[in-house]
Amino acid sequence: MKEFHGMTWNYRLIRYPAGGVGIHEVYYDGHGKVMFWTERAITVWGATKQECLESYIQMDEAFRKPILSLARLEKNLRA
After folding, report:
1. What phi and psi, each to the nearest 5 degrees, are found at residue 47?
2. What is the largest CA-CA distance in the chain?
3. pTM for this structure?
């Protein structure tokens, strides 16, 4: 996981209520609770080929973790 303003983040797969799955950046508090995520699925991007590869490798880790449910994430945030 990477750090961002005292939070950590990683790439995760999120399943949408209407169907489909996308890769998102997901941000966690110091206790590992999901605090927020990118609104839209992200793509591999970098200023160089190496940066693209590094992003891709980090995204690949998302496929080894359970898929998060967008509906459940939203419900937990309201609780």
Report:
1. -75, -20
2. 42
3. 0.87
**What's the start-to-end Cα distance of the chain, in Å?**
25
CA distance 78 to 66: 22
pLDDT tens track for 11-60: 999 999 999 999 999 999 988 999 999 999 999 999 999 999 999 999 99
Based on its alpha-carbon atoms, the radius of gyration of the chain, rounded to whole angstroms, reads: 13
pLDDT confidence band for 2 (50 / 70 / 90): low
Rounded alpha-carbon distances, angstroms, from residue 63 to 1, 16, 47:
14, 16, 24
Q: Helices in the chain by DSSP H: which ranges?
A: 49-60, 70-78
The total domain count for the chain is: 1
